[in-house]
Amino acid sequence: MPPADAAPRQELPAEPMHATRTLSDNVYRWLRDQIVLGKIGPNEPLVEAVIAEKLQVSRTPIRESLQRLAADGLIVSHRRRWIVRQHGRDEIVAIYEVRMALESFAARFACQRATEAELAAIAAHCDTWSAGGPPDEFVVFNDRFHHLIVEAAHNPRLARVIEQNHLYYFNDQVAAQYRPDEITASQSEHQDLVEALHRRDADRAADLSRRHAEEALTLILSRLF
Question: Of 27, 83, 178, 182, which cross-links 65 as Cys (Cβ 3.0–4.6 Å)?
Fold first, then answer.
């Protein structure tokens, strides 16, 4: 059931709309980013009237965007309003079990299908990380690293499903809280994966990618539960 408009006022961080996308896409991506980055937290309401005023748009693209976010599993209807979904331990484990499988396939396909230029770009990006960098910068670096591998797999359908599986607030929020030793360990795993890709060792790359996601799950569960 769609949420009622009458609800307490909330503040959403302002951000300019992207000129080349449709209005509905702009609103959807903006709201999605606020949720994924933790700027709108679990169980917080999403009120059409407040969002419309903040973004200076009508309620129609907002309504469409909220329906898309619900289909993504990021929000749920609760007491006649939309709220950001709070995920339980079992749900997070299930999400990461899927992620382990998908990213393992992506690494395998990248070994088999990536061009030399793509492999060089992955290695070059891995080398851009400076030890001791802040966790919030590591989040951006990490997202880009894995995105490059998925692109190199040359499977658009797989890429879409992996992107969908990344749209959960706990991914980047927990990564932004990594301790220096955890960042170092994660980066070491990245370097091992780059080496496997360079050698086009598909079995090793797939195994490293699966274990990398498994380690991320362990850290998330230790932080949230």
Answer: 27
**Do strands 45-46 and 81-84 pair parallel, antiparallel, or not at all (unpaired)?**
antiparallel
List, for residues 93-136, the tens digit of each pLDDT value. Answer: 999 999 999 999 999 999 999 999 999 999 999 999 987 788 88
Task: Retrieve residue 35's tokens.
Answer: 């949720």
- The sign of the dihedral angle between the CA atoms of 171, 168, 221, 39 is positive
pLDDT classification of 36: cutoffs 50, 70, 90: confident
Q: For the chain, which residues make up each domain, given as ranges?
A: 23-84, 89-224
> How far is CA 82 from each of CA 6, 48, 175, rounded to the nearest angstrom?
12, 9, 26
For the structural domain made of 89-224, what CATH number should be given?
Answer: 1.20.120.530
In this prediction the pTM is: 0.80
List CB contacts of 208: < 8 A, sequence separation 6 or more.
Answer: 107, 189, 192, 193, 196
CATH 3.30.479.10 assigned to 23-84: no
pLDDT average, residue stretch 183-188: 95
Residue pLDDT, tens place only, 130-159: 877 888 899 999 999 999 999 999 999 999
